[in-house]
Specification:
This protein is mainly alpha-helical and about 100 residues long. Helix content is about 85%, strand content about 0%. Helix 1 packs antiparallel against helix 2.
């Protein structure tokens, strides 16, 4: 399962970099309508957050000194993904209001 967590984490980090760098580039060239954060909306940002949360939670559980089973590691990864989606929705709501 470590390979799954690693691949998901890399995909999430690449998505996060695209979101951040694309937004900065769109702002600098004067085309805010091309901002990936605006194009994806809250659902896209939440999906990226879920990928990063799942990957980080899974890797953290797999390499924990408590020696979790793979089932518990998977459960902890899913919980981390859900919590990251909640955080992204909260943060996006704070940014809009």
């Amino acid at each position: 399962m470590v390979k799954v967590y690693a691949v998901v984490l890399v995909v999430g980090i690449v998505g996060l970099l695209v979101l951040i760098m694309g937004g900065a580039f769109a702002e600098n060239v004067g085309h805010p309508e091309r901002d990936p954060g605006e194009l994806m909306g809250v659902r896209g940002k939440a999906a990226i957050g879920a990928l990063v949360g799942f990957g980080m939670g899974g890797m953290s559980a797999e390499f924990s000194p408590l020696d979790f089973t793979w089932q518990l590691s998977l459960l902890l990864a899913v919980i981390a993904a859900v919590l990251s989606v909640v955080w992204v929705r909260y943060a996006a709501g704070q940014a809009e209001g």
